[in-house]
Task: structure prediction
Amino acid sequence: MEIPTTGRVFGLDWGSLRFGVATTDETQTIATPLATLVRRAGKRFPMPGFLALVTEHRPVGIVVGLPLTLEGAEEAAAAEARALAQRVAARTALPTLLWDERFSSARAHRIIREQGGSVRGRRGDVDALAAAIMLQQWLESRRTPPS
Result:
């Protein structure tokens, strides 16, 4: 199932403890950070919190970040992100796809520093911003036809 071209889309940045969530505007022009969900150590993805965001913002699709190695290979984190995408799709009944999230966290750190900020004590902000960066890349890929 393909994500519609209008309506809000969520971006979900996978993390071992924190999950950044971003959303687009209705026209799918720009992605913005929305929230950070935290899982307790040894626990599952905080699905109730995510489902509350879905109910509140009513996205038409979800893009889950796929954490690949620098070489583009998949390791354990990628397998966990794939499993998460399947669970999210099953629970929301929304079109869900995976998107390469390499460097999104590094870009988020750089953006915060360039604006004169510190990332110290702002891990949640970094994760939500990383989700927005990943989602924005996906939006731009939809607007640019493959060559």
Q: What stands out?
A: Residues 18 and 38 are 5 Å apart (CA to CA). DSSP finds four helices and five strands in the chain. Residues 123-143 form the longest helix (21 residues).
